[in-house]
Write a structure and sequence with these properties.
With about 280 residues, the chain is mainly α. It contains twelve helices and no strands. It has helices at about 5-20, 30-35, 35-60, 65-75, 80-90, 95-125, 135-160, 160-190, 190-220, 225-235, 240-250, 260-280.
Length: about 280
């Protein structure tokens, strides 16, 4: 992608994270103390089990190196604002979902460079790509993820009516921009896209379904109520596709790495719709 496209992608992620900040309050972080067991199960699924499942999928399938790296980038970017919306519509525990998204967004600032560098070395080989500088990446992710969230949360605190009014338009804008980015990626990688889609589609769908299923089972094993189990399942299985695409295109300057996250961003709405359908029809226990 050219510098203009890269700048637009970075701006899109800023808008997405600002929109998420508009829905958060500083009190959301206090819920870590109120739901310690649920938070522990959710974060374990997001930060440990998710990357391990991603790695397992890349080992089982003979994926092109670019697709394998893309799957691992995706696995390094859990949660995101979409998971909160799906949790709400599926009758999940929205407070738990929001808390997991907020906390994992902060922690992944530290984990993204290590997971991505591991994937680059494993699938591309040392010397074939420029690895992410850990400190530089932490700073970049902080700027494009945490600062917009803090700004959004500050607006929510001091101008609550404006924040609630703007949350929906910002969400719609970010969805439209993401769609345009995906279209741009398809055009840029049109020669390889069909082959990549066939391979990345199966891997991304499996990553989505397996992590959701394991998240739900783990929550039930720890006797977490159904609404909380639904939220943990969704937080485990719905990834931040926009952040993953940004890592691939902006930080690594490689659109081929963004194919898997782009394919996933399309598929997650279908699986999310299924979860919403069954969750909204089920009785809470």
């Amino acid at each position: 992608m050219d510098s203009l496209s890269t700048a637009i992608l970075g701006l899109a992620l800023l808008i997405v994270m600002l929109g998420m900040g508009l829905t958060l309050q500083f009190s959301d972080f206090k819920r870590v103390l109120l739901y310690p067991k649920a938070i522990f199960v959710g974060l374990t699924n997001q930060l440990i089990i998710l990357p391990l499942i991603g790695l397992g999928i890349t080992m089982v399938f003979s994926l092109p190196p670019e697709v394998a790296v893309g799957i691992m980038i995706l696995a390094a970017c859990p949660g995101g604002p979409t998971s909160n919306l799906i949790s709400h519509l599926a009758k999940g525990d929205l407070a738990l979902s929001v808390t997991l998204t907020a906390v994992s967004s902060l922690i992944t600032i530290l984990t993204i460079p290590f997971i991505v560098n591991f994937a680059l070395v494993r699938f591309m080989g040392e010397g074939q790509v420029v690895a992410l500088g850990v400190l530089q990446t932490i700073l970049q992710v902080f700027v494009i993820v945490v600062i917009p969230i803090i700004i959004g949360m500050s607006i929510r605190k001091y101008y609550p009516r404006f924040a609630l009014k703007m949350a929906k338009p910002v969400r719609i804008t970010s969805a439209v921009v993401l769609a345009l980015i995906i279209i741009g990626l398809v055009i840029k990688e049109r020669e390889n896209f069909v082959a990549y889609f066939e391979q990345a589609g199966i891997a991304a769908l499996l990553l989505n379904i397996l992590t959701m299923g394991i998240g739900y089972i783990a929550a039930k094993l720890f006797t977490i109520p159904k609404a909380g189990s639904i939220a943990i399942a969704i937080e485990s299985g719905i990834q931040n596709g926009t952040l993953a695409i940004t890592v691939a295109v902006v930080l690594l300057n490689n659109t081929a790495f963004a194919i898997a996250p782009a394919v996933y961003s399309l598929l997650m709405f279908m699986t999310g719709g299924v979860i919403i359908y069954f969750g909204s029809r089920s009785k809470q226990v």
